[in-house]
Amino acid sequence: MELTVRIQRYDPEKDSAPHFENYKLENVNKTDRILDLLNRIKWEIDGGLTYRRSCTHGICGSDAVKINGRNRLACSVLVQDLKISKSTIQIEPIPALPLEKDLLVDMSSFFEKYEIVKPYLIPKDAPPERERYQTNEDAELLFESAKCIQCGSCSTSCPSLWVNENYIGPAAFLKAYRFIFDTRDDATAERLDLIDTTDGLWRCHTIFNCVEACPKEIDITWHISQLKKAALRREI
Amino acid sequence: MSWIKTLLTYEKAPGAWSWGLHRITGLGLMFYLYLHIFALTALQEGPEAFNAEMELFKSPVFMLLEWALFGLVLFHSFNGFRIVLIDLAQGAKYHKKMLYWLTGISIALFAGMGYVIFSGVFH
User: Fold this and answer.
1) What is the ipTM of this complex?
2) Interface-testing mutation among B4, B22, B87, with chain A (most A C-beta atoms within 10 A)
3) Which CATH superfamily is domain A3-105 in?
4) CA B69, CA B79: separation in Å to the nearest integer?
5) Distance between CA B98 and CA B119 in Å, rounded?
6) Nearest residue of A to residue B15 by CA position?
7) Are B10 and A219 an interchain contact pair (Cβ–Cβ within 8 Å)?
8) Which of A88, A103, A165, A208 is the S-S candidate for A51 at Cβ 3.0 to 4.6 Å?
9) Nearest to A65, CA basis, from A31, A91, A102
10) A31-54: pLDDT as tens digits
């Protein structure tokens, strides 16, 4: 089939503001990934097109872009997955982060939010001779949150972050959950203090944009609700 | 204010619609509360002034506005309950289902109230 790919372009050395450009592609298969289309444009039409990709198989999380109005991973979405009107697919960078070039954004602030929640195990005791033991049931509490590939689709889809750039955001909350509900971790009170702030948990207004955007289908809002309950419980 | 453009162009799923409607109905209810308190100040001017004002509220325009007010109350209260269930229970897993149910029930009650207001059964 024939398809028009409408891409937001921005070259900081030439352009004063981002603009859209259309690229016509022939012989597009409905099983092509959106990343395949970007690659074809870069390799066959305009080598200057800039975007991130690495593993290209939905594991590294580097090619999150806004496709037809919603954040998704370009390597995990096929042409047939999209509702396409007028044979056009629109691709923009993920919102709310500083734009560097074309589809490339500066992810620094996104990863600084991870550092706020201390994304590492803080145990009370010294390491035992063998592993820190966990039952299957205890481990199961963490499986869904541990699927996160840190692509940034969720946090940058959140209206609370669009309005307040200091909002910690769903991705970091999910990481906080992963350690607060880990039976091997002993820093629950400290961790809850870090997210129970004015830029924290309570700015989640259960809009569910993060859940819609997550390429790993993690129910992020459910995990945040568990954190809200934990933060409330200690006040009672 | 660039977030307004982002908000307008980003795809809206049911969760986003319910959030937006909750905000809009909340503002509507706040506006009504101001109007309500303002209307009650007529009491200070004596019974005649207050009764004259009450007559005004029986006009078709105000009947329509009251019906709309009932719609705001319905959505805002039901959706508020939904948000409590999402935050403090397991509601996040059923949030779309809850939204469809509360919308359906709201429409039914809204229609029923329309009948009550305009058929004059209480006059």
Assistant:
1) 0.89
2) B87
3) Beta-grasp domain (3.10.20.30)
4) 15
5) 31
6) A207
7) no
8) A103
9) A91
10) 999 999 999 999 999 999 999 999
